Amino acid sequence: MQWSLILLFLMGQCCFITCLYEYHYVGENKNWSEAQQYCREKYTDLATVSNMTDMKRIPNKSGANMNEAWIGLYDQTDGNRTWHWSLPGVEFSKSKTNWSQGEPDDVNTENCGMIKKYLAWGDLSCGNDKQFPFLCYDEKNTTQKFHLINDKMSWLKAQNYCREHHTDLISGLNQLQDKQLQDELSSVDDSFIYIGLFRDTWRWSDGSSFSFRHWNLQFNNTKYNSGQCAMTVFDDGGRWKNGNCTDRKPFICYDDKVILIKENKTWEEALYYCRDHYHDLVTITDLDEQRWVQEEVKKASTLFVWMGLRYTCTLDLWFWISDEVVSYKNWVSDGQMDDCDMSGAMETGGQHKWFKKNDTEELNFICSK
Predict the structure, then answer these.
(1) Quick one: signal sequence residues (predicted)?
(2) Pure H helices in the chain
(3) Which of 9, 154, 212, 246 has the fewest CB atoms within 10 Å, i.e. is most exposed?
(4) pTM, rounded to two decimals
(5) Is 77 within the bounds of a domain?
(6) CATH number at residue 250
């Protein structure tokens, strides 16, 4: 790429990276449906929460007159349950499972997942009376990624323990098939062991499929929780409980700063479109931003979508057009060589890896606002 083009791409972009989404606390008392309508008119929607990082970003109103606020999670009236993994970003695939023969049998409404020593899956009731050992995953500890906790807990308490002391309950086939995990389980008996598999009927107002849940430890205990709409409770560490949707409370909206454009354009055409109509082609600097963008790209009409990632032959490097350093990477490991006239695109299915594509291809693209 010529220096003049590099300068053109970077012009006015240095040191101006926007958050991909923002939360807004609204102190007016409304029922859940009214709050949803307000957020859709003023922002994007009622708050969607994708992980613990989001929980820390939500405005903390602990000590306010109203200690609770609606978020965008609601219980479907049709009762259609969907399986999820507890760890954010790990998507459940119906075609890639390891159910034991006859499972899931759903005896007495079984919504939590377990394994035995031989690693085949089964379903269990999630009640507080069902207490078993469990497996935690620690993404920061490369020498010991998996931890078998022999203290028996309910599934919800096990999830809470893993999130406080490690990362989360073990989630996904890749983790469950890891050789290190098999070594960890070599000495256990045939008892049930909880894993991060669960199913529920709860959905996000904006239609996103994030599996993150942050319920309080009394969830599903009707003495403390009832109703089909979720709220965050500020003096309980932001944990959620469900309540009657007609109750009037403050609420939290979110404003999405990225948008999928379902028009097929070359990379350079996409760049100018974003700069003319919004801010820029999207920049992704960490795993949390990757997870947010990949939720958007699921709706694309092409197999890949352009991002603001470009290769320059002159400098022999990849760079974000926002001038952000390419520190976080999610490339597919296909051994493809870097070449001139290449730009970065995210796959819209699979694991949403990044691919090096010829920038004359015409694809959908993601703009930042």
Answers:
(1) 1-19
(2) 3-10, 32-42, 52-57, 155-165, 173-176, 179-184, 267-277, 287-297
(3) 246
(4) 0.85
(5) no
(6) 3.10.100.10
